[in-house]
Amino acid sequence: MLTGGAAWFAGRPEISTAAWAAGTAVVLTSLITEIAISLGKREFGLDIIAALAMAGALLLGEYLTGSIVALMFTGGQALEEFAQRRARRELTALLDRAPSTAMRLAEGQWEEVPVGALTAGNCILVRAGEVVAVDGNVEDGNVAVIDESALTGEALPVRRRSGEPVLSGTLNAGDAFQMTASHTAAESTYAAIARLVEAARAAKAPMARLADRYALVFLAITLLLAGGAWAVSGEAIRALAVLVVATPCPLILAVPVAIISGVSRCAGKGVLVKGGGALEMLANTKTVLLDKTGTITDGRAGLIDARCRGDLDPIEVLRLAASLDQGSHHVIARALVAAARERGLELSTPSASRETAGAGVTGYVEGHEIAVGGWDFVSARVEASGFSREIREWIARDGFVAVLVAVDRSLAGAFLLADEIRPEAGSVLRHLREAGARRIVLATGDRAEMAEILASFLQVDSVMAELTPEDKTRIVEAEKASGRPVMMVGDGVNDAPALAAADIGVAMSARGAAASSEAADVVILVDRLDRLVSAIRIARRSHRIALQSVYAGMGLSIAGMIAAALGYLAPVQGALLQELIDVVAILNALRALAGPVHGWRKRPRLPHAELLRLEEEHRDLIDVVDEIRHTAERVGHLPGPEFRRQLADLDVLLRQRLLQHERQDDEELYPKLRGSTDTPDALAGMSRTHMEIRRRVHSLASLRKALGEDGPSPAQRYEIQRLLHGLEAITRLHFAQEQEIYRMLEDG
């Protein structure tokens, strides 16, 4: 087109017409081939109008007109293909997670061989941190600590002893162990799941383009006007003018621009959308299936509760245990170390540490003999006592892992760890319903009792547990039979077939498996479930803007077609008019690049850096909230002088750190947020909670001053414990509410 334009200005019309005709002919030839292939698949689109316009331009000698139409058509295609290439470039392939080699014992020597060379009966060494290559059984004298979360959804590691099965695709979370292969790699669990993914992909209907849904009606109107104009006037040029004006560039260009703008905004929030069809389906989702582990829950063990001897400080016991656990690769040991670091504890270097695989660790920290591990491991190293019996009853609960700590051969205390629900999970489910989800199902491979506990306080419509990958796929197909678009959200290998089968699959890939990312249509790259809601909102807005461009472009095109049919527009004039319509439609579509504006003022927004700072402030106060709970447990039996001292120390801690933090929120943060919104009392509830926290701290000081000379009475002990437990609960809930508000206001 540029060559033809230059030749025309140089006074060489024969070169310009040849250049425009050649360009049009090349695009037309390619387009006719694509149309033939599509019709063979019984697919129909607006490409036919563009082909008719280019063919008519060549036949009637309107070569510039044909070149303009060809440019607009190929530009729209290039935009769509660019979006798909950009999305797929960010992903790893399905088999990237599967190990390509394994250590096999042959003639008394370990050798690294391709996994395809493994056969049943081979002795295999699975090193720490490796993915198991084939199904097999743990050999005699070995203990395996296996992370099965990718396959079963169970967040906490499991121990496999001699003769017990180990599945391919799981992760060795402990020390190296030996196993005997029971299947080849092609016959193992992970390969079977990969085949399920491919089968689900093959059975899944392709996503239709938004523009194609209007093709039939628009084509009928176009042909009717073009044929009518030719028949009435007897001038074929009028029919061409109608076809040129009718060339659906607003649909071919504006729709991809709006959709790609939405894809770009999603990427800015850490959500990778694989193309326009996925974004459109994301906007229309009506049924949502959610996996549990790593999706609704965090997917990692976190410190939930602690109980220690009355003469010991729980924070100090945690520091000693975490100091010893620094040398362990066990997932629970790492969780305990992470909990200590979250509380700002300075860990010491252990010495003479010795780990029993899957059981516990012993060693010395600052001259103290420390043992950290499960009940059997630690109880065998301490004498039985009333406190040990109390601890044994305290740790006997489902869904938790207990870590016991002995100091100098005496039981010091225990910690409970569990896979915690994501703090944003409740608001995400609420926003999903506001975004149009009519049915939300919890579908997990985890145990039924754990799923039921979770569903008891989450607003879901149905709970399905202990599911295999095949079960999840069947549930997706059953939900699709209702006629409503189905979204599946998961993160593990076991979710991959269901993600591939769903109308729209969403993978949590921050710590998830590559298989789920490859099988999904949408990949959340950050460890934030609330980004799913952000992506849906962006998709709905982009879809709405695309529809506006469609309606406006088609309306203007029909008006121009009528003018062309009546002889008021020549083909070139029609092409220029179509360009003007394109500009209007594309400018409207580009609005999808920016966020929505609410009235004259934007919603109050927090920069991402500010959000991270506020969340870090809450993490820095974890030790203060923990100390409220520990003090409540200790004051039940402390003697009078120690009772007074600990309450006084807690009072200083609360006033210097907790109340100071709440005062800064009231005086600095909340006014800034209220000043940028049309609802100045939106944070009144948070300020009211600050008042309640201050009231309880003041009440605690008043009760401390009212203590008698002989120490607290039983009634005073009870009242102070009750006050402290209430203060802890209110503070934890308040922090969770603030975090939800801050994330809701996050910018970008």
From TrEMBL:
All residue ranges annotated as the Hemerythrin-like domain in the record: 614-742
Keyword Transmembrane on entry: yes
Reactions that this protein is recorded to catalyse: Zn(2+)(in) + ATP + H2O = Zn(2+)(out) + ADP + phosphate + H(+)
Entry keywords, A to Z: ATP-binding, Cell membrane, Membrane, Metal-binding, Nucleotide-binding, Translocase, Transmembrane, Transmembrane helix
Keyword Cytoplasm found: no
Domain of life of the source: Bacteria
EC number: 7.2.2.12
Domain P-type ATPase A: 98-198
A GO molecular function held by the record: P-type zinc transporter activity
Chief location bin: membrane
Compartments, record wording: Cell membrane; Membrane
Transmembrane segments: 18-37, 44-61, 214-233, 239-260, 550-570
A Gene Ontology term for the protein's cellular component: plasma membrane
Pfam families referenced in this protein's UniProt entry, alphabetically: E1-E2_ATPase (PF00122), Hemerythrin (PF01814), Hydrolase (PF00702)
NCBIfam families assigned to the protein according to its UniProt record, in alphabetical order: ATPase-IB_hvy, ATPase_P-type
Family note: Belongs to the cation transport ATPase (P-type) (TC 3.A.3) family. Type IB subfamily.
Protein name: P-type Zn(2+) transporter
